[in-house]
Design goal:
Helices cover about 50% and strands about 15% of the residues. By secondary structure, the chain is of the alpha+beta class. The strands form 2 sheets. It has a 5-stranded antiparallel β-sheet. A hairpin with a 2-residue loop joins β3 and β4. The radius of gyration is 21 Å and the shape is globular.
Length: about 290
C-alpha cells in the first residue's frame, strides 16, 4: 500500500510531543536558515541536496547516508550551496526527558548521545548497506506513526527503541577497542565478518582462508548453531538487505549487483523464492511516495 509520509516543512524549533518526533522532508527553494538551537537532541539523516551543515563554528560537508546528531543548546543550520536538487532528509527529535527514560532502561540506549556530547563529534558516515538498514527502520516507524492499526502505540515504542539501539550499536562498534572483538567466539566472529562483507566473495573457501580454519569446521558450526549451511545464511542476509534497499531510490540492478549477485535471473529466482513476489512487485507494493 502506498502512503505519503512526507511532512510540510515549518520553522518550529520546539517539540509538541513529550518524547520524540520524526519527520521526512523534501523541500525546494527554502529560504536561508539562521543559526539556531533547541533543548532536545536532533538526529539528522541526510538523503539528498547540495548543502553543508554548520554545527557550532564548524561546517561539515554531507553526503547521502550521513548521520548527524546535534545535542541540546548547540547552534546549527543548513548551508545551501544551490537549490538545483531537492533537499531531502529525515529529522528525528528526542526530548531530554525521553533521554532520561532511555537511560533508566539501559545505558546502551544513550551511548551515542553521551559520546557526541563528550567527544564533540557530530557526523557519522555510513555505507549504502548500513544506511539502507537505517532507512528501513525509519520508514517502518513512520508508517506506524501514520497508521491506526491495532497495537499502534506499542509498535511505535518498539520501533523507536530498535532504531535508537541500532544507531548506538553502530557507533559503539566503530569505537570499541580491538579486545572486544577478540573475546568473541568463532561463531560470532564469522557472523560479524559475513555481515560486514556481504558485497564481496563469501565462498566457504574464502571465509576459511580468512579465519585459518577448516571449511568443514565452519560448515559444522553453522549447521549446529543455525540449522542451515553457510551459503543459505549468506543468501538470506543478502536478500534481506536487498528487500530493505528496494525501498530506497537505487535501481534494482544497482542493488543486486552491490550485494554479490552475479546476474539478475539468479537474483530474481532467489528473491521470489524467499518472499513470494518478484523484486519489482515488492517495490510496487511497498514504495513510499516521496513526492
Amino acid at each position: 500500500m502506498k502512503k505519503n509520509l512526507q511532512s510540510a516543512f515549518n520553522t518550529r524549533q520546539y517539540m509538541v510531543s513529550q518524547d520524540f518526533e520524526l519527520y521526512y522532508y523534501n523541500d525546494h527553494d527554502l529560504p536561508k536558515v539562521a543559526l539556531h538551537s533547541h533543548n532536545y537532541y536532533e538526529f539528522y539523516f541526510f538523503l539528498e541536496g547540495d548543502i553543508s551543515i554548520q554545527i557550532g563554528k564548524e561546517i561539515f560537508p554531507v553526503k547521502h547516508g550521513d548521520l548527524l546528531l546535534v545535542p541540546p543548546k548547540l547552534p546549527h543550520r543548513p548551508v545551501f550551496h544551490s537549490q538545483d536538487s531537492p533537499y531531502r532528509r529525515f529529522v528525528f527529535w528526542i526530548s531530554q526527558e525521553y533521554y532520561c527514560h532511555l537511560q533508566q532502561l539501559s545505558p546502551d540506549y544513550v551511548y551515542l548521545m553521551d559520546y557526541v556530547r563528550t567527544n564533540k563529534k557530530y557526523i557519522f558516515h555510513n555505507d549504502l548497506i548500513v544506511f539502507n538498514t537505517i532507512q528501513s527502520k525509519i520508514v517502518r516507524l513512520l508508517e506506524e506513526m501514520h497508521s491506526q492499526r491495532f497495537g499502534r502505540d506499542t509498535q511505535i515504542s518498539l520501533c523507536v527503541n530498535d532504531l535508537i539501539l541500532y544507531l548506538n550499536r553502530l557507533v559503539y562498534e566503530q569505537n570499541a577497542p580491538v579486545s572486544q572483538s577478540k573475546r568473541l567466539d568463532l561463531y560470532q566472529q564469522l557472523i560479524g565478518y559475513i555481515e560486514e562483507h556481504l558485497n564481496e566473495n563469501l565462498s566457504l573457501e574464502a571465509i576459511a582462508r580468512e579465519f585459518y580454519v577448516s571449511k568443514y569446521h565452519i560448515a559444522h558450526i553453522f549447521k549446529d548453531r543455525l540449522g542451515m549451511s553457510v551459503h543459505q545464511y549468506i543468501m538470506k542476509k543478502r536478500l534481506e538487505l536487498c528487500r530493505e534497499a528496494i525501498l530506497g531510490k537505487d535501481s534494482i540492478t544497482e542493488i543486486y549487483q552491490s550485494l554479490g549477485f552475479c546476474d539478475y535471473s539468479s537474483f530474481y529466482r532467489a528473491f521470489k523464492k524467499e518472499f513470494g513476489v518478484s523484486p519489482k512487485e515488492y517495490r510496487d507494493m511497498q514504495t513510499i511516495k516521496y513526492d
